[in-house]
Structure formats: C-alpha cells, structure tokens
Amino acid sequence: YRFGYASGFVARLNFTISFIGAGFDFCNWLIILSDFGLREIPVNSKIFCLSASLPSIHLDPCDRMIIAAAITHSCPVITADKIFGKYPNLSVIW
C-alpha cells in the first residue's frame, strides 16, 4: 500500500480543523500506519507536471497532486470526494 505526501498534508490539515484535531497525534498515526505496510510516495516533478496537466475537473491543487500520484503509481484513492471518480484513469474506493 502507498501513501502520498500530499495525502498526508491534506489529511493533517483536515484533522487540525476537525473535532479530532486537539487531542490527536497525527504524525504518530502516520508512523503507526507503516506497521501495516503503508509506504509513502514522494511528490516528484513527474507528479507535479501531471497534476498541472490533468483536466480541470478538480481545482484543488493538493487533490490534483493526490490524483496525479495515484495515477502515476497505479494506486487507488480512498476518498469520499465524488469529484475524484470523474477522472477516467483513477481507481477510487468509497
């Protein structure tokens, strides 16, 4: 399993502003995930370029990097965001 840096950044921001944020050690949670075989995907120039060239379906730049990383590494994205499912080369779970 793979976990993109952009996904971690977005998830951290969401946890900060959610009801969990105050007492939840998000960075420790990321470390624990590695115990379950989760591997981080670095954001590189290939992912940046692909995110910029994707169709303008999703306009959030962090989400576009998540989409580009998933396409680049042939990984599904787990999300409740229905816009992700509009990308034809992207596998979405949820």
Q: Give the CA-based shape.
A: globular
Radius of gyration computed on alpha carbons = 13 Å
- Unreliable spans are none
Distance between the termini: 16 Å
Largest sheet: 2 strands, parallel
- Tell me the structural class: mainly alpha
Describe this protein's structure.
The mean pLDDT is 80. The protein contains four helices and four strands. With 94 residues, the chain is mainly alpha-helical. Strands 1-2 form a two-stranded parallel ribbon. A two-stranded parallel sheet has the order 3-4. The radius of gyration is 13 Å and the shape is globular.
Summarize the structure.
The protein contains four helices and four strands. By secondary structure, it is mainly alpha-helical.
